[in-house]
Amino acid sequence: MVELDLNLWLQAEDVEPEATLTFTDEGKDTFIPRPEGEADVKAFEISVKLPDGKVKSWTMNLTSQRAVAKTYGTHTPDWIDKQVIVFVTEQNVRGSMRKVIYAKVPSKEPSVTNETVSSPV
After folding, report:
1. Among 7, 79, 101, 110, which is least packed by CB within 10 angstroms?
2. 12-103 has which CATH code?
């Protein structure tokens, strides 16, 4: 028997008020269907691992994409295995207040060097 996992998409309840997620793939361009007569909306989905180990698909808003790209660049394969902190805020979406997930700008990972520090003798 097949069991459908219908809870594939990241929800505000999964991460509120704040959580650290890890990107698990490079993501893909997709479309959000709109009612008849309205144009579908271009979107970007990427898989993220939650602190509990579950993997879900996050439809990143443009603000979050820009925040992450400031640190990791626009080449999303470079995001794989990188972490991002997300937070939830309420926002007016198409006339109703909804919880929305945003990414904080990730801090640069410290660079590792092999330099030695000499101390005076």
Report:
1. 110
2. 2.40.50
